[in-house]
Design brief:
Length: 770
């Protein structure tokens, strides 16, 4: 095969890099320096992604989808025009009028207090009454409505009439207009007339009957309450007569006075009891001193001493509080003994409580005993100091007189106490003889008051109802039902505007959706819009992959613009190999279906035709297709090499194209992905570098999985395959950013399926630059 003009001689080896340069084998190429970015820094989006849609941009997008806009928009516009025309086509409309008097004359003349607001409220109420189910049901019973036989056409004719019926009125007008629409003009007129007549004849005239029924009902209620009130009053009078009084107020005053005297007597009984206790204490003290004075000296010359314990015991025996506390202690002890006898646990709460209560009461007894002891000691000391009651010269007669006075004081108090107790008993009997009127009497009196108030209200309501029976009706018929001529301008205007609006909305929606995708239209959008270099542009060719390699190794694309464009890209790769020792190149794309496999195969065949020993390695392990282009077996391949099952030289298969070898993808599984993540390709590329001039890798799409990112870290350069009218610029930009983030060197993008003019203006420039 003749050597292409202007290409390096394949017999001359490619220059090796300087020692200071990194070798062109994956794993030994230093990653590209990452520019310093402060924390939180977000780089601005490129112009192609940040530009807002404008009119020209939307029109350009609409040109790409004009067929869909015409087909879809035209269909929807026609449907919209037809739908609006039929939907807005006015149905026959019938109207009838009813008059409502603003200030009707009643039996007492014009009603006072009438105002504009009152009349408006009455109009609104009347309009609601006309459009109500009772009125419609009354209209359905009329003969003219029965002849329409609406039940045969409507499942619920009453609801159908309610939906299409409306009642309107104007300010400062006594007329209510009834409107009804229906497809049949005769039905519309009949229904409007029946509604008016049913309301005026049946509803309004039936109002007199309702007024009369209301009067009868009020009279019945009034009479019933009046009879009940009389019964309650009679029961109240009988109760007072049975108690012997006709004045409940005087009865209550007598009882209150008796209760007050009883309370005073009980208070006086308390005072007498305290005085009696004091007098008895003085008498006991007097007797104690006399006893001390009369004591004679015993044998030995000593006076007979008063026994303190005996006196204390005597006083304690007579003390009522000591007796009460002693009885309480006895009961507590009996309960504790009973619990011990039953074998109850002493840790129970009740047992502990009783013990604590016993200790408390015993403490009170001890405290009381100590007080009595101190009092007796003081009495004995005073008696010894004074020697006797009164003066030292007090005679026995005087002592008797003094004791008699104290004894008389005690007796008088006891007699006074007895008389007061008798008085208390008499007052208690008197209070008992004056009984209360009771809750039943009070409840009866309260219900009498409430029934009297209710009876007064009913009397007023009954008078108003009787007066309203004599008032004339404010409502009367004014105009018979007739058809109304309707305006069709709205229908015609909407019919003309609707299709235009629908067509414009569909066109705008399609243009907006197309703009949101930001598909690649030209190579200039990649370079200027995304800031990614364009390495070349390949024109559109049908079934390009089938024409790359013929049966004898020759390509069917010789001399075509497609081959010229591919050779131009090959020239750029050869230039990169000479200038930057770029020999290991990965071809990938943002997503699937963007021509990366075809581009990789085309570049491999072009390098092989240029006399370079080239290896095409199928790195798309998940969806391999390179083996189908060159008609070789899919395995063994790269997957088996990564798993260490075979050597890479054993996986390389020679194709019909001279100098071109292919390593298929092999059988992929999860273990292969793990081996790839552990940099399993580094040693593989080092072995292949000594045998091949160029190694092209067809990789998996970048955004679909991270396989391309794992491989991209170990190659010399990356080519992005972009398909015109298919690739989306946000995805292409994202793929380039992810590759650069892992340190991969993006050589540039190749735009597939470009316009011929763009190809011829781009490819030569690339060749010259190379």
């Amino acid at each position: 095969m003749p050597q292409d003009a202007g290409l390096p001689d394949p017999s001359v080896p490619l220059p090796q890099p300087y020692p200071r340069d990194a070798a062109p084998i994956a794993g030994r190429v230093e990653p590209l320096p990452v520019p310093f970015r402060p924390a939180g820094f977000t780089p601005p989006a490129p112009p192609a992604l940040s530009a807002a849609p404008d009119l020209m941009g939307l029109l350009s997008c609409l040109r790409q989808r004009w067929a869909g806009a015409v087909l879809l928009g035209g269909t929807l516009a026609a449907l919209a025009a037809a739908g609006v025309f039929f939907l807005l086509q006015p149905k026959p409309l019938a109207s009838a009028m009813v008059r409502v008097e603003a200030y009707p004359e009643g039996t007492l003349g014009t009603r006072p207090g009438s105002s504009a607001n009152d009349f408006k409220t009455y109009l609104m109420t009347t309009a609601s009454a006309i459009k109500s189910l009772p009125t419609i049901q009354a209209a359905m019973k009329r003969d003219e409505m029965r002849r329409l036989n609406l039940e045969a056409h409507e499942p619920d004719p009453v609801q159908a009439i309610f939906d299409d019926l409306r009642v309107e009125f104007k300010e400062n007008s006594e007329l209510l207009t009834i409107y009804y629409t229906h497809a049949d003009p005769a039905v519309a007129t009949t229904v409007a007339s029946a509604i008016k007549l049913a309301f005026v004849d049946d509803i309004v005239k039936g109002e007199q009957d309702r007024r009369a029924a209301k009067v009868l009902k009020l009279e019945g209620s009034y009479n019933g309450i009046d009879e009940g009130l009389k019964t309650r009053i009679k029961s109240r009078d009988e109760t007072l007569k049975r108690l012997g009084t006709v004045d409940p107020k005087l009865w209550r005053e007598q009882r209150a006075e008796a209760v007050m005297f009883l309370r005073e007597a009980k208070t006086q009984a308390t005072t007498i009891g305290l005085s009696l206790i004091k007098a008895r204490s003085e008498l006991d003290g007097f007797d104690l001193r006399v006893k001390l004075m009369k004591a004679k000296p015993a044998e030995g010359g000593k006076e007979e001493e008063l026994d303190l314990e005996t006196e204390v015991a005597r006083v304690m025996d007579a003390d009522p509080e000591i007796k009460q506390m002693a009885g309480r202690l006895t009961r507590i002890e009996e309960e504790l003994e009973a619990m011990d006898h039953k074998g109850l646990s002493r840790t129970r709460t009740i047992y502990t409580h009783l013990k604590g209560l016993r200790d408390t009461v015993q403490g009170q007894v001890d405290k009381r005993k100590a007080g009595i002891t101190q009092r007796v000691k003081r009495a004995i000391a005073v008696a010894k100091k004074k020697g006797a009651p009164g003066t030292p010269a007090t005679s026995p007669e005087e002592l008797s007189v003094m004791r008699a006075q104290l004894k008389r004081q005690v007796d008088d108090l006891m007699l006074y106490e007895e008389r007061n107790d008798k008085r208390i008993k008499e007052l208690a009997d008197e209070v008992a003889r004056v009984p209360t009127l009771g809750e039943d009497y009070e409840r009866n009196v309260e219900e009498i008051k409430q029934q009297q108030k209710t009876l007064d209200d009913l009397r007023q309501e009954l008078e108003r109802a009787r007066v309203s029976m004599k008032d004339a009706s404010r409502i009367s018929g004014f105009q018979e039902a007739q058809l109304v001529k309707q305006d069709v301008k709205k229908q015609l205007l909407a019919t003309g505007v609707a299709p235009i609006a629908v067509l414009g909305a569909v066109s705008f929606a399609l243009a907006w959706l197309e703009f949101r995708k930001r598909r690649v239209r030209s190579a200039g959008q990649i370079s200027r819009g995304l800031g990614i270099r364009v390495v070349g542009a390949v024109p559109k060719a049908p079934h390009l992959s089938r024409q790359l390699v013929g049966p004898g190794g020759e390509s069917d694309l010789e001399g075509t613009p497609v081959m010229e464009s591919i050779d131009a890209i090959r020239t750029r790769l050869l230039h990169e190999a000479q200038s930057r020792s770029t020999r290991l190149v990965m071809v990938t794309s943002a997503t699937s279906g963007e021509g990366k496999t075809t581009l990789a195969a085309a570049l491999a065949t072009s390098l092989a035709r240029a006399g370079r020993k080239t290896l095409l390695l199928d790195g798309d392990l998940r969806r391999p297709t390179a083996h189908e282009l060159f008609e070789v077996a899919m395995q063994p391949g790269l997957s088996e090499v990564l798993l260490g099952e075979i050597e890479v030289a054993e996986a390389a298969v020679e194709t019909a194209q001279e100098n071109l070898f292919v390593v298929p993808a092999g059988q992929w599984d999860r273990d292969v992905l793990l081996a790839l993540a552990r940099d399993g390709l580094e040693g593989v590329f080092e072995k292949l570098a000594d045998e091949f001039d160029f190694i092209l890798i067809d990789s998996h799409p970048v955004l679909a999985a991270n396989d391309s990112l794992l491989i991209g870290r170990q190659v010399d350069a990356v080519l992005l395959s972009v398909l015109r009218e298919v690739s989306e610029m946000p995805r292409v930009y994202a793929a380039a950013q992810q590759l650069e983030a892992v340190g991969a060197r993006v050589l540039g993008a190749v735009v597939n399926a470009s316009d011929p003019e763009e190809v011829f203006t781009t490819a030569p420039a690339v060749a010259v630059a190379a």
